[in-house]
Amino acid sequence: MDExxxxxxxxxxxxxxMKTLTSSRINDIHKKMVFRYIWGKERVSRTQIREYFGxxxxxxSGIIHDLIDQELIVxxxxxxxxxxRKPELLxxxxxxxxxxxxxxxxxxxxxxxxxxxxxxxxxRESFRLFKKDPxxxxxxxxxxxxxNIIARFPRQLCLGIGLGVPGIVDHQHGVIEYSAHFGWKAxxxxxxxxxxxxxxxxxxxxxxxxxxxxxxxxxxxxxxxQNLICINVGEALGAGIVIEGKIYRGMMDGVGxxxxxxxxxxxxxxxxxxxxxxxxxxxxxxxxxxIGKNYTSEGAAVQVLxxxxxxxxxxxxxxxxxxxxxxxxxxxxxxxxxxKIILTGALTRIDPQRLLQTIRLKIMEKALEPLAxxxxxxxxxIHQEKEVLWGASLVMENLFGIQNIH
Length: 406
Fold this sequence. Notes:
This protein is of the alpha/beta class.
């Protein structure tokens, strides 16, 4: 009886796997693979696709037909070939579907943008939520604002809405489990937006630093990097982690909350309610408070701190903040051994070369020598005006990410 049950259980599991891997599912995976290949190469021929993947001519023909029919790619001229018929080249359709990107910052600023598949920002507008507003009011205000933006492109197919938010996020269910700055707990922002405003659109909610990390993988310097850390520091501090080409999330999607590591006992109070967190030493609001100035926005804080760098005390304060970032970066280097670390966010725009040099020296001083020597430390190429691409990357990954097959 035991043997029968074991065999029966194995048979059931096998049947489940076979049902999962239908021809439709395989074709969907192949389409994602081909689209990502075209995205990475920018212009590519059908022959290159066949040779790269080992697909048959008919398989590639069918996939290309579907991607063109869905307006995701277009034929884009011919290859420069000295002999014979010149093959048609394929490219992502920059005049096709659009994506809505939304970034909610820690202190209430909201950026909303429409982005095409050529990475062009068609519209970008912003407004501010008040942290004391109840979640329902804030989400309704956000929904109306997004609706008004989408209405300006009524004929364009929208692939979805990507929303990067602060805090711990259950990305599978679109719930902000905890946001220290807003004081929100278990707020189902995705379902609320979908039910009240966008029932037909995919809505992807994720932590803003995870969005920044995916932004680097889709639009920035993280392309083709299998083991990556993206450190985002501005109003807050967080780290996005990529292991073997996939975002690592940890329990409750809570990975990367490095800003809330208590480094100093009885230190400066932090938004999370604890004392001496790293964020309270390196974030822009904390730095502005230390020089006796009010914090109003990331842009204003960057400008003030740049102008004050001739003041030795401010220069020393920034040096201390850069050094603390270097300490935590060295720790992450030893723990995760990434190929590349990308630094992004508003703090990186104040004195970028000094920041990079300070962190590199700390890594060499504190991390294991072979890792420190090999690691590629870099600043993001996605500058302030392009950060809205982060939200678009959430939609791209949702649609074209290659998931593990179980």
